[in-house]
Amino acid sequence: MIDYGTQVVGGVTPGKGGQEHLGKPVFNTVSEAVTVTGADTSIIFVPPAFAADAIMEAADAGIGVIVAITEGIPVADMTRVKMYVDSRDCTLIGPNCPGIITAGEAKVGIMPGFIFTPGRIGIVSKSGTLTYEAVDQVTKAGMGQSTAIGIGGDPIIGTTTLEAVQLLMADDDTDGIIMIGEIGGDLEIKAARWIQEHGTKPVVGFIAGVTAPKGRTMGHAGAIVSGEEESAEAKKRVLRECGVHVVDSPAHIGAKMAEVLGVTA
Q1: What pLDDT, on a 0 to 100 scale, did the predictor assign at position 15?
Q2: pLDDT tens-digit profile of 72-102?
Q3: Please, what are the domains in the chain?
Q4: Contact 160, 153 (CB under 8 A)
Q5: pLDDT tens digits for 185-230?
């Protein structure tokens, strides 16, 4: 299991300095919450205009894992946040993501936890919806999930595809990895190059956006093709060259992973 925190701000027994509302403590600042409760994980839901400050406040308070659900944070704000977070000992997941979940054990996010079944397949994805599709297929194929990480679809994010893949490769509870990407950027290509050199577990990949017109944003703010190497077909070609088992349809993700691992439902 990937260890990504044990306590969530607002989700612990009220202590000194906190006012109780709806059975949960409320604090004036994140630092106060950390001091009183020892919290080490924070989830950000605040509106885009205030999300950058919320993320940096959590990082400044010593929060170890910050999950930013908020969509639409200005790129200029995220540029500042990225530099701020990288200078501190913390991990940012998102923004514009569903969060992270270890099936049957812990969830910090908005994904429907009931669809996840404990197992040994790790998932890293830019898309929340495709994550849920992969989860359903993996379960129906007779496998379950270890940890699923939704990294988010914005141009500037905290945890990258490569970093998520590295975590899952090092996770003793994960036997195979599903990597779901899309057009735009080079996150999947960087991950594939690393997998080619250092991968020890099979990876099944899917790249969304095959029919997307060049130069047009499709769904996510980061899904815009600015060069040939960022197209879906180019990414699929590189992934295959690097040993990733690429499927052309999201409907085949679960079956391909079962085939690669020799699992029969």
Answers
A1: 46
A2: 999 999 999 999 999 999 999 999 999 999 9
A3: 19-93 (3.40.50.720), 99-261 (3.40.50.261)
A4: no
A5: 889 999 999 999 999 999 999 998 775 566 555 555 544 444 556 6
pLDDT, tens only, 131-180:
999 999 999 998 999 999 999 988 899 999 999 999 999 999 999 999 99
Residue % of the chain over a pLDDT of 70? 84
Q: Which residues are catalytic?
A: 220
Q: 33-43 in b/e burial notation, b at 16+ Cβ within 10 A?
A: bbbbbebbbbb
Three-class DSSP labels, 48-116: HHHHHHHHHHHHHCCCCEEEECCCCCCHHHHHHHHHHHHCCCCEEECCCCCEEEECCCEEEECCCHHHC
Cβ atoms of residues 84 and 56 within 8 Å = yes
Query: Which residues touch 90 (CB under 8 Å, ≥6 apart)?
Result: 58, 59, 62, 63, 64, 65, 66
238: left (phi over 0), alpha (psi -120 to 50) or beta: alpha
Mean pLDDT of all residues belonging to the chain: 87
Verify cis geometry, omega within 30 degrees of 0, for the bond prior to 155. no
